[in-house]
Amino acid sequence: MELVAEGWKDYALIDSGNGLRLERVGPVVISRQSGQAYWEPALSESEWKTRLTASHWRHDQGPGKWTEQQSTPKVWNLQFKKMQLTMKLRPFGHIGIFAEQQTQWGWIADHIRTWPGERVLNLFGYTGASSLAAAGAGAKVTHVDAVRASVGWARANAEQSGLGDSPIRWIVEDAVRYVERELKRGSEYEGLILDPPTFGRGPRGRVWKIEKDLVPFIQKCLQLLSSNGRFVLLTAHTPGVTAAVLRNMLFPLLEERGGKLTSGDMVQQAEQSPMLLPAGVYCRWSAFA
């Protein structure tokens, strides 16, 4: 099933094409590379330039570079429902949010509201929007990311979203090592959220490569799901890792526990174009068919 993410008051994909995407992020309009946007943009080049506040370009190696107007803020906030999320122009082109994931945040919250107090593990948690969606619905959340700055960013997002006193554990650790430790401790969770990167390096130098490490990692993660497990959400943004690949990884859950598996593409709908921009793939397991 294709999940189409549309804009909201503080965010919109304006247009895409020629390998780029044009986005409105609060008061800032940015252009970033998007390798699958092969088509022609709906807006002219001059219309893009007129709207732009900042643009990012990255070559094959290195972080890339932002070109900004002098008035571009260094830090600003974006609101999504009750969440207040800090935005920054980061060297690799990231800004602090993956807007296509908004279709997942509501799904996460829906699986928690009926059973508040569920334990949820969010691995590769980045700046925490999924953790805030879970905590805001009443979950006890463990948020794990190997990058200390990202965990600090997520924690600040929680504070300014009114969730500073919510039961969220903030863990700076390699996700694989953390899961291995949790298995030894006999820990269990009712919900698992995973958004693994293509490549990564943990604090102690452990290298993550999705094509080599994801399958054994998923197998370990599923062992953490309690007998009352409610949901698993797995997303990916790696070329070659398709929705069918993710579905195959979670299929043992369907065989063992029943429930329902749903998978497909995540895409974004632009304001000024009928084109849908590919933005990753997902697979969801729910205990409730």
Indicate the CATH architecture of the largest domain. Answer: 3-Layer(aba) Sandwich
The ordered string of helix (H) and strand (E) elements is EEEEHEEEEHEHEHEHEEEHEHEE
Number of helices: 7
Span of the ends, CA to CA: 15 Å
Biggest sheet record: 8 strands, mixed
Cα gyration radius (Å): 19 Å
Biggest sheet strand line-up: 1-16-17-15-12-9-10-11
Q: CATH topology of the largest domain, anyone?
A: Rossmann fold
Mean pLDDT: 95
As a percent range, the share of helical residues equals 25-40%
| Count of extended strands | 17
CATH superfamily of the largest domain: Vaccinia Virus protein VP39
Notes on the structure:
The protein has 289 residues and is of the alpha/beta class. The chain has helices at 45-51, 102-113, 129-136, 148-160, 175-185, 210-222, 243-257, and strands spanning 3-5, 11-17, 20-25, 28-33, 54-57, 65-68, 75-80, 83-88, 119-123, 140-145, 168-172, 191-194, 199-201, 207-209, 231-236, 260-269, 276-286. The protein has 2 domains: 3-88, Sandwich (Immunoglobulin-like); 99-286, Rossmann fold, CATH 3.40.50. Helices cover 27% and strands 33% of the residues. The strands form 4 sheets. The protein has an 8-stranded mixed beta sheet, sandwiched between helices. The chain has a 5-stranded mixed beta sheet with strand order 2-3-4-5-6, with no helix packed on it. The chain has a two-stranded antiparallel ribbon with strand order 7-8. Helix 2 (102-113) packs parallel to helix 3 (129-136). The radius of gyration is 19 Å and the shape is globular. The model has no long low-confidence stretch (mean pLDDT 95).
